[in-house]
Amino acid sequence: MDTIIDAHQVTKTYNPKAIPVMAVNDVHMHIERGEFTALVGPSGSGKTTLLNLIGGLDKPDTGSIVIHGTDITRLSANQLIDFRLRNIGFVFQAFNLIPVLSARENVELIMQLQRAPKAEIRKRAAILFDQIGLTDKMDTRPAQLSGGQQQRVAVARALASRPQVVLADEPTANLDSKSASNLLDIMSKLNREENMTFIFSTHDQRVIERARRVITLVDGKIASDTARVDTSHRHDV
Predict the structure, then answer these.
(1) Among 47, 79, 214, 219, which is 20 to 30 Å from 202 by CA?
(2) CATH number at residue 185
C-alpha cells in the first residue's frame, strides 16, 4: 500500500491557560493514496480540527503528521506555505472565492502562485472547467454564480495544482440536494481518474454514503474506522 498521510500520536488542545479542551486526543491514522474518506462525528468531536492539522492550517501540540514523506509539523511557516501550495487542495464550506476575480481567475491563481507557464495554466483551467461542467461560466464573477456553481469552482481551484491531497470541510453544507449530488459526482470521478486522495469533514449523509472509508471521531479520539464497498459508480453523471 502507498501511505500518503501518516498521523502519529496527534493531540491538539485549545485554551490551555483557561479551561482546556482537547479537540484531538492521541490520534493515529494512516491514509492511503487515492482514498475517498469521510471524517464524521458529532459537533465538537474534533473532525474539523483534525482536518486543519492535516492541512497545516494549525499545528498539533504533540505528535507528527507526515504527508508524502514530509513531516509537516517540522516545517517553518514559510516552508509550510510552500508545501500547502504544492501538495494540498482545500475546499471550504463558505467557498472562499475571491469576489473581484472571475471564476477562471480564481482557479488560475493557484497555478500562477506556483509560477506555472501561462499556456499550461490556461490549458489546465479549461480542462477543469470542462470537468465541472462550467465552461460557459469561466469569465463570470462569483456573485453571479449559484451556490452549487461556486462550490464547483472551488473544487476546480483545489484541483488546479494537481495536489497530493484534497481536504474538504463540510463542502455540501450550503448546497441543495441536486447541487450536492452533482458536486460529489465530480469529486468521486476525479478521485478515480486522477487518483487524488480526498478527505472530508462532514455531517452530511450524502457524503458519508459516497465515502469508501468512514472514520468516526468522538471527543477527539477515533471511535471507529470502517472501509466500505465502493458504490460511487452508481452516481456518475
Answers:
(1) 79
(2) 3.40.50.300
